[in-house]
Amino acid sequence: MSERLYELVTDLHAALDTAADADSCVDSVVNLLTDNSELIRSDNDMEILCEDVLRHSCVDSISDDALAELLCIWRGLHLTESAEPSQLERGFVVLSLAYYLGHVYGANVFRKIGQYMDSLLIPVVSNCSRHRVHIPAVRLLYEVCLLQELSLSELDEFSMEMIAVLLDSVEKTACSDQLEEYNFSILKLLLALNDQYMKKNHAREVIENRIIACLATRLYMGKSLGANVIFMFNRADNPRVQRLIIRFFMRMLKSDPTSGFFYTNDLKVMLDVILREARSVADENEELQQGYLNVLPPLLHNPQIKGYKAADVSVLLSDLRRVGSSGGADSPRLGSPIRSETGASSPMTGVMGTSGVRPSTRRVAERVFLECRDVLLVQD
């Protein structure tokens, strides 16, 4: 922590020690941080300040709901496209405090903040992409979308213009190491919104998926988005984010206008990750494992990667279909490794017992095998 940042923490403590009530407590923090916002140069700086504020007894004595509401309706916050820079800095402080408050106190805070989605978060995300207030607004909106299923009227607030702003922001921040986390925050918001549309259209289409519709109009303008989502997919260790990415892949690959969105090399990496992760998750996360399998049909039928790793996919599906079966002419003896046509032995066979693959996963593997049989190098 820099000396000046340490001095700001000391000043915050002094202001909070003399705060008379919840209102004056919030006012003191917001005003002091806004007046010294030039000292807040990174996410780490803001995290240090927010954690210190939230640990203070004056703040800790306020209920999480009340504190979230005080922040969202704070009387000094007016964020519009034409807002003064000082107001935008104030917004950055308020929304950053709200974001870290949610991570300290949990889902109830994000639910409360979600009540101000259309009046506070969406306008900032739509109109303030050139200012850093955009960063906590994007992160808060992602948390809200992750927490609850939005109504049709709420989803309708996400305009094509707003989606375009987010997609443009992805492209503008794609090559900056300093903005990588911000870039990933935008990507996660887009993934969560796609998931919201997919949930609403599960039985029948009741609302246009504006993420897919917008991407379909800019197939040659959004390549950084595709590459960065693949990058996230390859290194993500959060099952919830992986599920969002999988559902995005499913929707993109199944839709004719966007089936050619990804570069050939990106599609190959996608398949490599699926082959790796579908084995490693095993029954630790059955839903995620089945999600990996469900991407295979639209992916393998994509002409860009025709035949790529087909033998390895065959081995994977054979393992999942046959391990734990009751035997038969086409059931390998447990302990006898299945080999792909390249000679690679299966790492699963001989390791999993009869309980290694759950019945529902075996059924998914069987269905996927049948759907992909025409493109796999399989002898059944």
From TrEMBL:
Top-level taxon of the source organism: Eukaryota
Domain SPIN90/Ldb17 leucine-rich: residue ranges: 180-306
GO CC terms: actin cortical patch
GO molecular function: Arp2/3 complex binding
Any one GO biological process: endocytosis
UniProt cross-references to InterPro entries, sorted A to Z: SPIN90/Ldb17, SPIN90/Ldb17_LRD
Disordered: annotated span: 323-357
Protein known as: SPIN90/Ldb17 leucine-rich domain-containing protein
Organism: Chytriomyces confervae
